[in-house]
Structure formats: C-alpha cells, structure tokens
Amino acid sequence: TTSNDAASANIGTIGGTAAAFASAAASQAVADPNSQATRTSLVNQYNNVIDQIRTTAQDASFNGVNLLNGDQLKLVFNETGKSTLNITGVNFNPAGLGLGSLSVGTDFVDNAATNKVLASLNTASTTLRSQASALGSNLSIVQTRQDFSKSLINVLQTGSSNLTLADTNEEAANSQALSTRQSIAVSALSLANQSQQSVLQLLR
Question: Phi/psi of residue 84, each to 5°?
Fold first, then answer.
C-alpha cells in the first residue's frame, strides 16, 4: 500500500498548492487589473508552484517504481504468475498536467492571459482527482487479494500435516515467496496513492 498511498498523498499536495495560487491570482488580477507589478509577482508565485509540483511528483518513488512518473507496476497474486494486475503509471510532472512555467512580461499581462492559466490549473485538478480515484480502486483490489492469499496460506499450512516433509517445505517456501511479493507490491501501490494525494493538495 505504500507506493499507492504516497502517490495519492503527493497528488493531494500538488492540488492544494495550485488551487490556492489560482484563488490568489484571480482575486488580484480583478482587484488591480492595471498593476504589472502585481502580475509580475503572480508569475513568480506560479513558477514556484510549478517547481513544487515537479519535485513532489519526483519524490513519489518506492522500490524503484514511481506511478506519477509513468512507471508500470505489475502485481502477482499467485505462485504461477498467471493471476496479475497491471497498473499503468501517469506523468504528473508539470508538463504531464499541461502546466508550464510563465515568463514575466509575456504571461499574465492581461485578464485574458490570466484566465487561460487559471483554466489550465482547473483542468489539472480534475485530472488529479480522476487518477486519485483510480489508484484508490486498485489499492482496494490489492488489499482484497492480499487478504485472500493470507487465508489461503493458513489453509495450506493447516493441511501440511497430510503432506510429506519435502512437500511441506516446498509449500511453505512457495507460500512465503508469494506473501513477500504481495507485500512489496502493496507497499509500492500505497506509496503511489500517498504521493498522488500530495500532488492534489498542491492544486487545492
């Protein structure tokens, strides 16, 4: 669950920061439409938010997998490898969210330019919320399968007395290997989920 939770947490952070900036930008642009000094300040604030989004998305990696950087995560639910769940990562850096750095004197020079930036922020927030829902769904699936696997392991261990010593050792080894693989997979998915929430916070 660690990878999934980390991705969700980071998405929340990104969403909250960008949304706070959007609110400030809208009010200042309307209140003082002729002040280029105010607009210059807003450009600098916006670029700081973009930097935070970039670093937050980069920090969503767990066990070498970053679901907010386009990586793929394959979860294996049985010892044969036939029961799997493939999770496709997304690029939630500024470029992936359709957000780019602004330039003083070029961007935010009038209300039309400001509104265009605010529309991009709103679109990014919607995208982040949608992905947060998808990661949450995947996490539920993994947790359900992990609970099932634990129950199955208990059944196998209980019935091991009917097996030969060699067979018992083999079943125990298979069960332990499966449990370890699933624990790693759940941790990776949990981190992605937490990171995603952090990203969303930056846009709120």
Answer: -135, 165
Q: What's the chain's average pLDDT?
A: 76
- Nearest-angstrom CA–CA distance, 141 and 131: 16
Per the structure, how many domains does the chain have? Answer: 1
Cβ contact 50:203 at 8 Å: no
Q: Is residue 30 predicted with pLDDT exceeding 50?
A: no
Average pLDDT of the segment spanning 59-68: 86
Structure tokens given for 15: 């969403």
For residue 88, the one-letter residue type is: T
SS3 at position 107:
strand
Distance CA 133, CA 94 (A): 20
What gap in Å lies between CA 3 and CA 181, rounded to an integer? 14
Residue 155 has, within 13 A of its CA and on its CB side, a CA count of: 6
Helix (H, G, I), strand (E, B) or coil at 59: coil
Per the structure, the complete domain to which residue 33 belongs is given by: 2-202
Write out pLDDT tens, residues 94-145: 999 999 899 888 888 788 888 888 899 889 888 888 888 888 888 888 888 8
Contacts of 177 (CB under 8 A, 6+ apart): 79
Domain of residue 139, CATH code: 1.20.1330
> What is d(CA 101, CA 80) in angstroms, rounded to the nearest whole number?
48
Measured CA to CA, the distance from residue 136 to residue 5 in angstroms comes to: 8
d(CA 93, CA 54): 5
